Amino acid sequence: MMKTCSTNKQSQKLLNPLLQELRQCLEVPISTTSDNNNDVEQQLFTDLEKVIVRVLELRAKEEAKKSNMTGEIKTMRAMIDLTPNYARGYLRLGQLYAFQGYQESAIDIFKKGLDMIPPVDPVYPLLEKECEYAKMRSEKRIDFIANLPYEVVGYVVDSNFLTMDAIWASIRVSRLWREKLVQIVGPSWEELYISKYSHQDQIKILPAVFRHVVDFTLDETAEVIRTYSDLFQPEYFPKIQILQIHEDFPRNINGPVYQSGVQDALSCILSTITNTLHTLTLTLLDISHAPSLTFIVATCRNLMHLTFKAEINDLDSLFTGMDQLSHETRLRSLDLQASHLSRGENMGVIPKNGIETLLRCSPFLQYLSLEGCRYNDDIIPNIQQHCPKLNQLLLSRSLCSIGIAAFIQKFGVLSALSPTIARTSHDDGNSELQMLVLGGRFSVKHVQSLLNKTHGFLVTLCLGINEEGVNDSVSTVSPEKERERVQQFWETVSQFNMTSLKRLVINQKSSFATVDNNDAIGKIIRRSPHLHTLELNDFHGANGITDNLMEAIATQKQLSTLYLQRSQLLLSNAAGVRQLLVDLPIEILDMNGSCGLEDEFLQCIPGWKRMKKISLGKGKNLTPDGIFQFTEALAQLAWLSEIRSFGINFTDEALMNFCNCKCLKLLSMERSLGTTETRTALRARGVYIP
């Protein structure tokens, strides 16, 4: 306490003379003549400047006595900003940087002082001398980045050997390292991913690497997205082609949600990179945060691939001004997804005129996906009329009928946009549809019109009927009439011979399904003789997987992947089905969520000699002997690498048979995995047990 009082008294003693001078300056009388006023004011400002400089000098001395270099540097910078011709400020600031080892910063300060100070100033020679000393100290530092040849440095600092975190750390060493390494490791910045988990030091040096960026992904909150819009300048991103922006939830869930300004920020970002951008992905929390599709396609004239995902309940704003769109776009793919799980009136409705105008102005469209939003059935003839090059069409009105995103994740898409794809094309450059996904309610008339022209060229067909049937409007007819419409839909599809079809997916989650539907679906399978992948999901109750469907599956002599998920096996002649299925070249069998497995059906699985992966559901009247014989036969399969079970009780004796599987790598059981000795024996053979 005594020390603090003495320090304050000493500072007051030093400042008292300065305060007296300041009072004298302020008490200078001002004349009534304007010329005299200007002279007096100029003299007043000069005197005030001198007083403030002397105050800062005293403060710098006090900081030096306390060995507070940070405070002294801050004070010296304030002196230089106030009086750019103050020579001693440059000298002292440069010396401080040099003392801390920042020779490059010291050289910059000395050079700036030499530019601002006249050569006649007595401090000028001292600045020259200190600048030379700093250069000598900088040259004496051992810096392999500065001294090694360019090729050697490029080999040492290689993204194939170093992690990106190590490269980021190397760039932060010094300005010389940053300038050289950013150039050497240029290809590493072609794909740049920034999220809320990114290091702040990485974000600081982003402008140094932006010129190399080709693919930029920003996964942040709305507040941060707005700040990044200031970084988007045309000269910063000369090479950018792919932009992905994913809006994350606020860090503080209970805090304010930053909504305002996001739309303007995204519009600003897109306006600065219009020339090179060809792929845009926007994943937003709310549709109000997005610029309109009209603005996007009108601003980014070279845009070829557009993916838009948001919480959608009002699509009118997204298609605002689309009627005025007059130029042709270069869009090759358009993916519009609703991220909500609402149905009925809460689902967004695509304006009829808006989507028709967009399709008419996108004659090069090859991939179109609309998921989780409502649209008029007339969209199908509009697509046929305006999109002659369309190769893949994915339409799902309800997220519960077919999840297109999950479908794409499981099967992928055709390489429709690849120049090497072998697809049917006409002399005029138009293409035939090869992938068709329909989920929800669609008019039988439009589906028939679509299949009339494409059934001979389809490679992938995915059909899903949800609880609302197949009509466009919400059904008000009786259940009997609705069942007739569902049956008419399947009968219509079964009329076509799809000789090019390789992948068939049918999701029949509908209370209006009947046994007659299975007969029609069996016809569809039989009329597609070259299937490699078949998926029959959600066949429940009396409309389960029957003998008729199994007989249709048995006709597929090229079938390698079979999915029977969330379905019920209703086999009246399991032994006969076993004889029909035994010779199929199946490699993957997935029955996750299914039930009704019997001993006879299990015994046909080991007959598939090419089997690699098996996923089984729940059994029905399975016996311990049948399970033991099943596992014993499985052990003889040469390529089996993965077994999953979600409802079968395996005994220790049955599990021990898996020790004889030569290629088995994964064994996952929902029920008990036997004793510790059994699990130890399996793990000793290299089997991973979760």
Question: What can be said about this structure in brief?
Answer:
This protein has 690 residues and is of the alpha/beta class. It is 42% helix and 13% strand. Among the domains are: 13-141, Tetratricopeptide repeat domain (Serine Threonine Protein Phosphatase 5, Tetratricopeptide repeat); 150-188.
The CATH homology group name of the domain at 13-141: Tetratricopeptide repeat domain
CATH class of the domain at 13-141: Mainly Alpha
Instruction: Tell me about the largest β-sheet.
Output: 17 strands, parallel
Mean pLDDT: 77
Percent of residues in helices comes to 40-55%
Span between termini:
66 Å
Radius of gyration: 37 Å
At CATH's second level, what is the architecture of the domain at 13-141? Alpha Horseshoe
Question: How many DSSP H or I helices?
Answer: 27
Q: Low-confidence segments, ≥5 residues, pLDDT <50?
A: 1-12, 253-258, 341-345, 415-427, 467-475
Overall body shape: elongated
* CATH topology group of the domain at 13-141: Serine Threonine Protein Phosphatase 5, Tetratricopeptide repeat
**Overall SS class:** alpha/beta
The number of distinct β-strands equals: 19
- Percent of residues in beta strands: 5-15%
